[in-house]
Amino acid sequence: MTKKCIVIQVEEGKAKIQMEDQLIKTAVVCKHVIQDIKRGDYAIAVGDTINELTIVGVL
C-alpha cells in the first residue's frame, strides 16, 4: 500500500505522520530521506499494513 501523508514531527529516524483520513501514525524514515524531511512536508509512505509504514520520499 502507498499513502500520501503530512509530516507532523521528525525524531531519531522516525516521523509522526497524518494520513489523508486524519489518522495519525508513526513511520520509519528511510536513510536517504532523513536529511531532507521536515515538519509540514508531504511524504510518500509505503508498507504492507497501516501500522508498518516506511517513508520513502518527500514530495
Summary, kept brief:
This protein is mostly beta strands. The protein has no helices and five strands. It is 0% helix and 54% strand.
Order of helices and strands: EEEEE
Low-confidence stretches: none
Amino-to-carboxy terminus distance: 17 Å
Number of strands: 5
Query: Globular, elongated, flat, extended or rod-shaped: what is the shape?
Result: globular
How many alpha or pi helices? Answer: 0
What percentage of amino acids are in beta strands? over 45%
Portion of residues within helices: under 10%
Structural class designation? mainly beta
Strand adjacency order, main sheet:
1-2-3-5-4
Radius of gyration: 10 Å
Largest sheet properties: 5 strands, mixed, barrel
Overall mean pLDDT score? 95
Describe it for me?
The chain has no helices and five strands. By secondary structure, the protein is mostly beta strands. Strands 1-2-3-5-4 form a five-stranded mixed β-barrel. The protein is globular.
